[in-house]
Design goal:
Blueprint: H1 2-8, H2 10-24, H3 36-47, H4 60-64, H5 68-100, H6 102-115, H7 124-131, H8 135-159, H9 163-171, H10 176-211, H11 219-228, H12 232-260, H13 262-268
Helix pairs in contact: 3-12, 5-6, 5-8, 5-10, 5-11, 7-8, 8-10, 10-12, 11-12
Length: about 270
Amino acid sequence: MALSRLRGAIVPVALLILWEILSRVGVFSPIVLPPPSAVAVKWYSGLLPGLPYEPGSQSYLSWLFSGEMPHDAVASLARVLSGFVIGAGLAVPIGLLLGTSDRLYGLFSPLLEILRPIPPIAYIPLAIVWFGLGNPPALFLIALGTFFPVLVNTIAGVRQVDSIYIRAARNLGANSWTMFRRVILPAASPFVLAGMRIGIGTAFIVVIVAEMIAVSDGLGYRILEAREYMWSDKIIGGMLTIGILGLIIDGGMSRLNDHLLRWHRGLER
């Protein structure tokens, strides 16, 4: 495992060294593409609180996260999680309902196929008209970006339950509720959780765009602000923070899926 990680770090480290050398010798303008060392300095300075800690004025934790970068990261992460909960909370029950009812699926499937390909970014003008500026339009866009991946995977999971399980449960006298709770829901859970993993990734993409339009803090807003002043090191630092948060979120979702699907992994082995 350690050797595999070491090998995986070879290419990124080599690219960083090459980038640093080319920037230092003047191949790239420092305004357009600053060296990694300058980006690291800018990124680290953004992590530091702006004022010294004064006991009694605020808690140490709030002071620790009062730096520009931690504050924006927390704001973006809060929007991602809030929008994800709203979108997934609506998508899962609707997906279970449409997946178990052929009549409802046939009725709503054409509408879903029309709306699903529309990217959440296309809703930005309507979101601003409907909700104004601030968090409401951002949460609407994030929830929308989460909704369809979770919905589609939930429907697919329910409709692809092996008929052998259904027939076996019926032969054992299971009623509709028992069938749903003990057969359909467990069999569809890998699809539902996979949809959630895709959905939270989409939510993180959407939040950056939404923050460039509708709010006054967050990583997307800070990147847009840096662009106005040609602060390329700050832009790349913000992008680095997005990548780190995305890696943490995806790793957390992967571990959660593995934990909740221990029984499914056991059956596969």
